[in-house]
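assembly run, all chains below
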Amino acid sequence: MIKFNSVTKKYEDFIAVDNLNLEIKSGELCVFLGPSGCGKSTTLRLLNRLLDLDSGNITIDDVNIGDIDPVTLRRGIGYVIQSVGLLPHYTVKENISIVPKLLKWDAIKIAERVDTLLDLVGLSPEIYKNKYPRELSGGEAQRVGVARALAADPPILLMDEPFGAVDPLTRDVLQREFLRIQKKLKKTVIFVTHDIEEAVKLGNKIAVLKDGKLIQYDTPDRIITKPGNSFIEEFIGKDGSLKLLLYYYVEKIMKNRIPQEDWVYNSESQTLLYNGFNFCLNNHCVYKDSSLKDTLAVMLKIEQRVLPVIDSDKKVIGEVYLEDIERVFGNANE
Amino acid sequence: MYLQEKTKYHSGTVLALALTVSALFLPFINIKKNRIDLGEVVKLNSFSGVILLLYCVIILLLIATSTPLIFKNIRENRGLLIIRQFIGLGIVALLWLIVDEVSNGLQNKSIITLESGFYLNLLAGYFMTIGSVQILKGKKTQLRFIPYFFLFLIIILFIAISGDRLGIVLEFVKERGRFVKELIIHLNITFKSVFFAILFGIPMGVIAWKNRILNPYIFGFINTLQTIPSLALFGLLIAPLSYISNKFPVLKSMGLKGIGETPALIALTLYALLPIVRNCYVGLGNVSFSVLESGRGMGMNSLQRFKSIQLPLALPIIFTGFKIAIIQTLGNTAIAALIGAGGLGFFVFRGLEQIAPDLILLGVIPIVLLVLIFDKSLTYLIKILTPKGLRGNND
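ok done. output:
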């Protein structure tokens, strides 16, 4: 558990972080959201002591971080930044091994760990291990950045706008992959972003910051349906309800049924015939982890009130109804 | 379509043509009865008909291959490229014939000095062979041997014509002992100066990088040094050094004097500071903030950050500074001979005094060769020292 107790950070007479009180439970992904200059990155850097705070204290599992040697502290906290910061003269493997080497792991253990991590972030170890950063695309470099932060299996991960510098398509893929990894590893993550959609998609909790002050700290659905003040309302925008759909996944509302006779599968054209409509497997079906926003978009496009849900082998595992999506708003507004 | 129109002329060939044509009016060779004789200049028109004819053929070939009169696509035609190589080799062969003819008609004891027309033709040959092949870099070709063949041919040419008549060779033979001695002194002064410049320059570069307040003073100082003409700096040092050495006999016994090696070392060290300090400063500052910050975020302490990030990333640039300092000092050391420090400049200044161009060349050519050798080999060394992940951007 990470606790910020009345934390204040000043730069001469500019107050970057103003009396911040915050509690992040272990295994939770907390997003710091706010416009640039709101103090979110500063707060992050206070936690691994890249900056020193002026008053208050931060505790990790009830230990004041001021009492831990900064170098030791940082080796136990994964850190990912927007510009990635891979060492250009190190191979991918060497970059990932940095913290394990600092912690004096033995070489065999490090080599195994590198392969595991590259697999985890979706890069084939054989292909990528010996590449240099300049041979990687932006998305690949960011994956290596995440692998490097996870290298020594730290319980805490700090991510400072990690997907801010990649194109929207890659960003979407990276976000999904990261959610998958987080589901598996259950790290305590603090994720800084100024993109509300990213915050809603990824966060278990969102802390909205403005001018160094914490304005609201709540779950994404409550932030959207019950914004604390007009600033947050404005920040969310008029399409808040659509953004809320990013927070929910098909899994939450799908009807688990494995239909037999009413779905007619045509393997040649890769289509499913149901209710008189031919669903194209590639474009008209959704997955368990598709967002409700994508699901609704498909429904509107092909004018259907029900869509098949398929798994990665393209087998039907259930269906999702428009009424259930509508009900999500009802529940959230209560 | 204006943009798609390609240059119609092959620039290297046009240049070679201009050189061979201007050589028509310049002296090729100077024949002297002895070393101090002003000599008798031989121009192209005094050679035999065969040579004149061959010279005209070469000029015609150059015209034909430089403009699209006969061949289309002058720049990319592969056949033309081969023809050009042979024209270049032909020019060297013709120079051989010329020297051969001149030396056959000589009296005993006469000395041959090569003149501008000869050198211009050598340059034209260079443009046609090595210059033309440069374009092929990176492409697979069997023509790669031609530059080496060209150089080989030139060496053969010089050996053949030197006999015992070529001025510069005669000077060399006469001054052989002195030459080796001055060459060693030259290298000695150069490397000592660069060594001292590195010794003082690296700390200065580190301070300039670390300390914003001292930075302008350091660069102000070494930039000002660079603006003092080298001759003046050597001269300026004589008076204070003589005074100091007379005042303190201990220093005098250690070799501190107003003239000789000491002032030369001091002046050359000061000159070599700029490339070393500047490259050290640039190299250290070149490492991006995000890389260093991520190193800090991962728990590297300041020594580890310096050792595994800052230094390896800065080293290639710092070594480039050493290379520039060495090359620059090799040239500057020539002037050290003026204040009695010796070195290859000795031959240059004595040649000037005696109006003996061959003696000047005996000093200049080795310096040029040294610069070329050190430039190539140090460039290669730096390439090896550059971390693998950073390579391939410059080549």
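Residues 178 and 304 of chain A are 31 Å apart (CA to CA).

Residues 168-185 of chain A form the longest helix (18 residues).

not gonna interpret more than that til we talk
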